[in-house]
Specification:
Blueprint (H helix, E strand, L loop, with lengths): L1 E2 L6 E2 L1 H6 L1 E2 L6 E2 L8 H48 L4 E2 L11 H28 L9 E2 L6 E2 L1 H7 L35 E3 L16 H29 L5 E9 L5 E8 L5 H12 L10 E9 L4
C-alpha cells in the first residue's frame, strides 16, 4: 500500500507502480516511470497562483492609496483655487463711539435713504409696467388709437432725474445715470434678513485697488462715511419699537466694481424685520472703490437707545 501524491489517500502498490486514476481524488497517478513527482508540479502551480494573488492585492492597495492622496491633494488645490478668486473675509470691529453722528449728518443720511427708497420704488414700478400688455382703467393711448401707455409710465415721465440717482457719498446728484434695483429684503425669519439685486448707487471712475492693506483702509473709510444711514435706520425703528436694542451681524461681499452682494443682516439676540430690512437696504446701496477681486466683509454693531 502507498499514498496518492495528490490527496495522500491510501492506494495500492500496483497503482503507484503502473499508474492510473486515484480512487479518492480521481487525479491521474503517472506511476514509477514518470520523470517527476506530479505533486511537485501541482505545488509549484499553487505557489505561483498565490504569488500572483499577493501581487494583485498589493497593486490594488497602492492604487487605492494613490487615489486617496490625489483626492486630498485635489481638494486642497481646489480650496486654494477658490481662495485665490477672492480675498479672505475682512472682519471689522466697531465700538459705540463709531455711532457719534451729528444732527446735520443724520439729516443728510435721512435724505440719502429716502432718495434710495424712491429710486427702488420707481424701479419696481418700471418692472411692473414692462409686464403690462392690455389697457387697464386709468391707462391711455398715445395719439388716436396708438400704443397703450400705463399710468405708471406717466408717473415715471414726470419724475426728475435727480430723484433716481445717488452720488458716491450716498447723496443725490442731478443728471446721473440710473441703476436698476430689484426686490426689497425678505421678511425676517429663522435665518438672516437677505437683500438681493444690484444697488442704486452710481459707479464712479476710480482706480482699482489691488493691495489688501489699501482695500481694508478703503472699506473702513467708506463704513464711517455711511454710518449715518445705519444710525437713521435705528432712529426710525425706535419710533415703533422703543425697546429695540442688541447686536446685529452684517455679512456682505464687495464686488470688483464696488457694488455689494450676498448681503445678510441678523440680530444676535433680538429680531425686527423692518429694522433689518432697512439695514440690508442701506448696505445694498453702498458704493465702494473698485477692487481686483471680491472682498467678503463681516462685522457686528451694538444698538442701544441709551447710548
Amino acid at each position: 500500500m502507498g499514498q496518492c501524491p495528490f490527496c495522500k489517500g491510501q492506494v495500492s502498490a500496483e497503482l503507484l507502480r503502473d499508474g492510473g486514476a486515484c480512487p479518492h481524488c480521481l487525479n491521474d497517478i503517472p506511476g514509477e516511470d514518470a520523470a517527476t513527482d506530479p505533486g511537485v508540479a501541482l505545488r509549484a502551480k499553487e505557489a505561483a497562483a498565490n504569488a500572483a494573488a499577493q501581487r494583485k492585492r498589493k497593486i490594488t492597495s497602492i492604487a487605492l492609496a494613490a487615489a486617496v492622496l490625489l483626492s486630498i491633494a485635489g481638494g486642497i488645490g481646489y480650496t486654494e483655487y477658490q481662495r485665490s478668486l477672492q480675498y479672505a473675509v475682512l472682519e471689522l470691529s466697531f465700538e459705540n463711539e463709531f455711532f457719534v453722528v451729528s444732527a446735520d449728518e443724520l439729516a443728510q443720511a435721512e435724505a440719502e435713504v429716502k432718495a434710495q427708497e424712491e429710486a427702488e420704488r420707481i424701479a419696481a414700478l418700471a418692472a411692473n409696467t414692462a409686464a403690462s400688455k392690455k389697457p387697464r382703467n386709468g391707462g391711455r393711448t398715445s395719439g388716436g388709437g396708438g400704443e397703450y401707455r400705463p399710468p405708471e409710465e406717466d408717473a415715471l415721465a414726470n419724475l426728475d432725474d435727480d430723484r433716481l440717482s445717488t452720488n458716491n457719498d450716498g447723496g443725490t446728484s442731478g443728471g446721473a445715470p440710473v441703476a436698476q434695483t430689484t426686490m426689497a429684503p425678505l421678511n425676517v425669519g429663522a435665518g438672516p434678513t437677505i437683500a438681493t439685486g444690484p444697488s442704486t448707487a452710481v459707479k464712479r471712475d476710480l482706480p482699482t485697488l489691488t493691495s489688501q492693506a489699501e482695500i481694508d483702509k478703503m472699506v473702513k473709510t467708506a463704513m464711517k462715511r455711511n454710518m449715518g444711514q445705519i444710525k437713521y435706520c435705528y432712529e426710525s425703528a425706535l419710533r415703533t419699537t422703543p425697546n429695540l436694542a442688541g447686536r446685529w451681524t452684517f455679512n456682505f461681499t464687495i464686488n470688483t466694481d464696488g457694488t455689494t452682494a450676498n448681503i445678510s443682516v441678523k440680530g444676535d439676540t433680538m429680531r425686527d424685520s423692518n429694522f433689518e430690512a432697512c439695514l440690508a437696504g442701506r448696505v445694498r446701496n453702498w458704493a465702494f472703490q473698485p477692487i481686483n477681486k471680491p472682498q467678503p466683509v463681516t462685522f457686528s454693531l451694538p444698538f442701544d437707545s441709551a447710548g
